[in-house]
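name: query_chain
kind: protein
chains: 1
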Amino acid sequence: MSRWLAYTSAGVLLCAAVACFLAASIEWGDRIAMVDPMPAEAAEQAGFVLVMWAIGAVNLAASLTLIFFRWQLTWWLVVGFQGALFLFVVVEGIQTDPPGWIGFSSLPMATLLLLVGLRLVNAKLRPSIAEIAT
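structure:
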């Protein structure tokens, strides 16, 4: 895997991690601002915040892994994880039906599309063997 692909993919994952941490912080602030929270609703919101923090931490770990281990398999595992994460968020949004899950489901999908787009750009930028030989 090229250095360019590893660093740009790590940058995308770092931005996704920051977005997860920011969304969790905003959601936690909304929980504190609730006037008379019901215990079930407060517990659901706290669970949502914990999951967003966990997703941000895993994205942070994945970006560090891409920087330190630039293997093809590592990149594909990160892409597979982002796809599984998107499916998890969509299923969780359908089951619990809070508006936060539906809005949050776009973040893993955007990260996945950016990673695949970077891979395609890297393939276009890599010179072919025929061009190198001439």
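note: The mean pLDDT is 80.
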